[in-house]
Amino acid sequence: MKSVRPQKKKPREIDRSKIEELSMTLDDWAEFEHGVELFNSGKFWHSHEAWELVWRRHAEDERLFLQGLIQLAAAYHQLMTKHNYRGLINNFNKAYEKLEVFQPEYSGVLITPLLKFIEQGKKEAERLGPKKIAAFNYNLIPKLQFHKPYNPDLVVALRELLKSEEFLEGVKLFNTGYHWEAHEVWEDVWREQQADARTFVQAFVQTAAAYSFLKIRKISSAKYLFQKALEKFQQFENTDCPLPLKAIMEDIHHTLELLAIHPSQGEATLKYTKPLTIELTPA
Predict the structure, then answer these.
(1) Distances from the Cα of 138 to the Cαs of 36, 99, 117, 133, in angstroms?
(2) Contact 280/258 with Cβ under 8 angstroms?
(3) Residue of 179, 172, 173 whose CA lies nearest to 266
(4) Cα dihedral 208, 257, 233, 21 in deg (nearest 10)
(5) How far is C-alpha 248 from the chain's CA centre?
(6) What is the pTM assigned to this prediction?
(7) Domains of the chain with bracketed CATH
(8) pLDDT tens string 194-233
(9) Is the dihedral angle over the CA atoms 170, 172, 173, 175 positive or is it negative?
(10) How many helices (H) and strands (E) does the chain have?
């Protein structure tokens, strides 16, 4: 007896608030960006094929975004090479329905202005009709506005890091005041990292150690480690990262200011909620 495949969700059934950014490998990013370059140079079918390689490797809700781009590329391919009115309109409708779920921006692509181009293109096509579609105003074909992540290698590494039970265990230990234990857990995670991700995790290691030293009133050691952690976090302030690094840096800086005024004081909590939000809050 054949198993029944689950019915695919319609775009309007997708909860945008529950969709995370695409979990992209380095190969995914390379192929995705190549697709953007092909699209923006008018090679719509080739961009369609580049994105399809990425599409095959992702889950259903993520596929919806990629499929929207693929169908938009197909729409312009139908227009440019075949002057196919029906193919253009059908793919416009399908692409719009999918992409509007991901407004205003998703995975570095600005979606809202893209939807306006689709609306304008559809009106132009309907004005011309099937017989005059070859006279379509090509100025209504958009360029994708895409910003590549600041550090794709680090973005990939961070996504893996945030799935790590060890890293999250360190967060829980920190939250409950076990700062040295959190330091040790994060240090194990740090040893497994490479390149920039290693520096990133070390900032957490040093932050946990700093608070541990505060407990035993080793203020000079705490200040030194806070400063080292802050220097490391500052290297990643422009990184496309799920963690609120700016807030973390502000709180560490504020803790250092408090220590300068009241060197005997200094407590903090690391708050973890899902999706991951980290706050260093000195008391």
Answers:
(1) 18, 21, 11, 11
(2) no
(3) 179
(4) 90
(5) 19
(6) 0.59
(7) 11-148 (1.10.3450.10), 153-282 (1.10.3450.10)
(8) 878 899 999 999 999 998 998 888 889 999 999 999 999 9
(9) positive
(10) 11, 4
